[in-house]
Amino acid sequence: MSQTVLVLDFGGQYKELIARSVRECRVYSEIRSGGISAGKVREAAPVGIILTGGPKSVYKENALAIDPEIFRLGIPVLGICYGMQLMCHTLGGRVEGAKKSEYGVTATTLDTENSLFKGMKIKTKTLMSHTDKVTKLPDGFTGTASTANTEYAACADEKRKLFGIQFHPEVELTESGIRIIRNFLYGICGATGDYDIDDYVERQIAAIREKVGGERIILALSGGVDSSVCAAILAKAVGKQLICIFVDHGFMRLNEGDRIERVFSSMDLQFIRVNAEERFLTKLAGVSEPEKKRKIIGAEFIKVFEDEAKKLGDVSFLAQGTIYPDVIESGSEHAATIKSHHNVGGLPKDMSFRSVIEPLSGLFKNEVREIGARMGLKDFLVNRQPFPGPGLAIRIIGEITREKLEILRYADDIVCSEIKKSRLNASQYFAVFTGVKTVGVMGDERSYDNLIAVRAVTTSDFMTCGYTPIPHGVLKKISSRIVNEVKGVNRVVFDITSKPPGTVEWE
């Protein structure tokens, strides 16, 4: 088993990014509750511990606490933001509200003699996000970084291998932040870098074979990254014992359903495609409210899947493409639920499966993509842009009809092909059917047709994002192609809203 670093969660929004950064340094990480006992930490035998940020103030009554014995285990600890404040507060230091808060990129001076900052520039830029600060260090600690407003922007007790930083090294806005994480892992924790994706896959395959034996597994295949990679692993493990059911609800992008069928019907597994567009459109007739659309589509998807599963007779195992962030986001002890995932407890309890198999549940999205590429999956699956489960249904504002779907499919295909050709650094891009009609001139005649919006964003984590500044030449080409090639559209606009205050999707 690989060496492990425990990331203790105190409600910080960057906990996944911290854990992912550790894995990118070839050290395995797991996110655990900040309320874990020292005894449980000792049982896990980590080589290091990282304390995340959090939204509370450590000196208030409802503040999230830590078992102080954790600092006496002899295991190196790195506290980030709230994690640093909590460590100092617990060990006898003092934390107070700052007269001047620090948010955003901040000029920071580092003590590069300290082992956490070895090899770094003395003057650097870090991302700060705090209203409290440490005003008195615990015994044995020294200050190791400062800013114009914060005397103790970092601190350390080298003897006990306890380190704190007020800023966030896990984000791109902190210069050489990954160097700090590497220094902690390799220079302080003594990590050997023994985490390997291939080993993870081989262990999963062996575990699946042992668990399943000669029984059959059923998987709801969406064609997304997670379910596709899940299918590839399962097929390698049990071959034709795997039955993949692809429920085509009719809201896929242009030719996407056919491409998915071509790929998976040629693999060593059983592939079933259910063309259910009419069924879904009937259920959605007259429905315009976004959340109601989502719920109807989710419920109907389960019903279709159940109907197909019953036709197969006894199937012992249900497989799901649940990944690690799904498990984390679907509710943790100290953080509010971000969203409920259909892969986490979303299927009916009365479905008669002996057990659920989730081979990706310990992996982050970037690791899932890496596995897919290594297993030879097509690029359009491995590097598929994020695509909502309800598909184009929530990119159509208002009621969904077959005509609107056709218009949006062709407009979206033009947007995607032109942005891809332009090689812009965009994380996600698509078209939106706005439900607005505008007056135009087509030829010598007045037109009254549909308005299509173009959306493109750039982000590293999708928690926040900025709109992608698409060059006017590319926008002109997109607009010209859509109004000339897509019947029923006479105007195109570009969405320049960031998140926040907007969201990536319009619904």
Describe this structure in words.
This protein has helices at 15-24, 38-44, 82-90, 177-188, 197-212, 225-238, 256-265, 277-284, 290-311, 324-329, 365-374, 379-382, 402-422, 472-485, and strands at residues 4-9, 28-33, 48-51, 77-80, 94-110, 123-136, 142-146, 154-157, 162-165, 217-220, 242-248, 270-275, 317-319, 355-357, 428-442, 445-458, 466-467, 489-494. The chain is an alpha/beta fold and 507 residues long. The chain starts with a strand and ends in a 13-residue tail after the last strand.
List keywords for this structure.
globular, nine-stranded mixed β-sheet, alpha/beta, single chain, 507 residues
What does the secondary structure layout of this molecule look like, with pairings?
Layout: E1 4-9, H1 15-24, E2 28-33, H2 38-44, E3 48-51, E4 77-80, H3 82-90, E5 94-110, E6 123-136, E7 142-146, E8 154-157, E9 162-165, H4 177-188, H5 197-212, E10 217-220, H6 225-238, E11 242-248, H7 256-265, E12 270-275, H8 277-284, H9 290-311, E13 317-319, H10 324-329, E14 355-357, H11 365-374, H12 379-382, H13 402-422, E15 428-442, E16 445-458, E17 466-467, H14 472-485, E18 489-494
Parallel strand pairs: 1-2, 1-3, 3-4, 4-9, 10-11, 10-13, 11-12, 13-14, 16-18
Antiparallel strand pairs: 5-6, 5-7, 7-8, 8-9, 15-16, 16-17
Helix pairs in contact: 5-6, 6-11, 13-14
